[in-house]
Amino acid sequence: MNRVRRHHPATLFTAFLFALLGAATLLGGIRLVNLGGSAYYLVAGAVTLVVAALLLFRMRLAVPLYGLLLIGTAAWSVWEVRLDWWQLLPRLDVWFVLGLWLLLPWPRRGLNRDSLYETSRHTGGGFLLVSLLVIAVVGIAGALHSNHDLSGELPMADVAGPQGDRAARPDGDWTDYGGSPFGQRYSPLTQITPDNVGQLQVAWKIQTGDTPGPDDPTETTSENTPLKIGDTVYLCTPHSRVIAVDAATGQKRWEFDPKIQSPVGFKHWEHMTCRGVSYHDDAKYAAATIPAPATTAAGAPASASTAAIAAVSTASATCPRRLFLPTADARLMAIDADSGQPCTDFGDHGTVNLRTNIGPFTPGGYYSTSPPAVTKDLVIIGGHVTDNESTNEPSGVIRAYDVHDGHLVWNWDPGKPDDTAPIAPGATYTRNSPNVWSLFSVDEGLGIVYLPMGNQTPDQFGGGRTPTSEKYSAGIVALDVATGKVRWNYQFTHHDLWDMDIGGQPTLVDLQTADGMKPALVASTKQGSVYVLDRRDGTPIVPIREVPRPQGAVAGDHTAPTQPLSDLNFAPPDVREKDMWGTTPLDQLWCRVRFRSLRYEGMFTPPSEQGSLVFPGNFGVFDWGGVSVDPTRQLMLINPSYMAFQSRLIPKDVLAKMEVGPAKSETEGVKKAEGIPYGIELSAFLSPLGIPCQAPPWGYVAGVDLRTGKMMWRHKNGTIVDSAPLPIPMPLGVPSLGGMVTTAGGVTFLSGTLDYYVRGYDVRTGKKLWEARLPAGGQATPMTYADKDGRQYLLVTAGGHGSLGTKQGDWVIAYALPR
User: Is the pTM of this model over 0.90?
Assistant: First the structure.
């Protein structure tokens, strides 16, 4: 007589679990099919619901049916992404785990058999086991096969001598943000090599005491690259403090606090950043520019030469060695490099007010986040302007002040590009003209300063832009150092609607070409192109093509029919639905639905009311970290990143019905954008779990032979240990914000990854040779120097980045080889 069986609790639980997963997958799958996407999720959801029903009715057919789903899922996954293990993982992981669970005896005990033996034998366990083995084999094959790296070697022979004024600077010093006015982020030091870099250890470390407070903006960032001159290191903090420390020990020598102020506090500022200070030494220019005194027949110096030397030596008798500090409340200050006191002969007791002639702006809405360029006679500075706030923002004017007394020598206003004479008292520079928030480069031999241009705000709508703002935005403008007049201009993004401003400092290098050595400018961009121009006149050295791009802007705007593309570029291929990622099939499905819901026709898809995918995103392939160039070997070391963003234009009548709080940062939240018919919403393209929706890798390190333009090696770089919900150090390759520094010793360094490490790589092969854990995010560009005894140090700022979510702090750490 047959006994009446009841559901086993494990069977009921399993049926319930499968029903939930099946329903979610089916509903999402229906939505995806309606958007023109893959039908897999609809089928998988339906089959999973059938499995749940069979389990509920205690039918043993549930087990082999689920096995068929596993085999079908494995086949579909390989068809979509081949054997890319990181893309296979979210397609297979949950299904595999559920299969393992279903293979256990307890979930199947209630399936119409009395004994465990009979259950195992007759409910499809064997077939399910085979299905799991199929998935396991696919996964193992993917893990063995998957490789996004490029292996090769860079040539390491010297082919050029020292360039620019780096040869005139002590090898052990780091006198400018980029190492020299050429912005190469290169050091001729050779003590640290691939053979010994693994021995690097902490030589000294300090905490500045400047940590983000509760009233600071979200995007409070420590992006500082310190300077080293003589035996002193100079650094600045997010709150514009300057600290001088002993280069060999880190012992503090002095500290200067400008006591920045805001009438409403700092909370509603867009960000608070100090990337560095600048340095000027009268003695250096006296030695470099004034010939040795002629002598009379009696051997006495000629009076004219004596007078010239005296004029230089007394030009700034109070501060012959001075630092220039841009403060977060829009001042430019000169500080004695020896004492840390203001240079009272500069401006008003050491200060030039950058708000002069700018007009009104919201607190924090205008100041210079980057150190100014310094020449023999001038300190030249631009400024950050709040993005997407309104069409009535401060001017993007570039101003040159006398390096000694601070009087205004010239101003270049992109709204009035031909009028460079100092503005009249009481007048106002052109409102809302394109600005320069990043770093200038200078070739004093040619007498040119090079500007990486931003845009006329707002970034995502250009219906009201003027012809001059269109001409001078999103490219390089070369100005005459002495007069501020335009020498040449080259635009890299036409009618920019994607925030593709030029974030990186232009790098100057004398480049070996088929036509001989040429003075070149290398400009990295957010779009991924690296443009190589003759820095004398702006003509391309590496070919640039105009490529057709998507059309169809919102009402009141337009798009450029073509965009420039350099033959030397690291732009990613267009993203596809099958490139969507996640940690499970469900969040991958969510990303697929979201991808299909957005407008996307490739790079430069115009902003839309529907919402558009922006890839590369607002942080760009390259941002303010720029590139590092070894000028003697003609090599370029880079750290490209690939993160998608999404933007949406919200009609003002719709925006009026929304509750809109302050945007978290310039790339996260909704901006009201006064003066245009839309609000602007920006965000990273992430799953509900905070994981990027497009598949990894998201970040690399790479090496390029500049003579041939060929990338010789590329390796994914960094782990998700500090950004994933679980601290698992998966080597996916993560984005980095900050640049690389390269040495003649054959090692290049990077600290800007989203995980908290500084790493050293072999320049020849890109192999990671060393890494050290940082106490906070290292979103800054490292630098290297030597002390008076010749000991080489690597210096890293570890202060984090508020809007990237990396841990914040106040650390500056020096590494060196053991004594």
Answer: yes
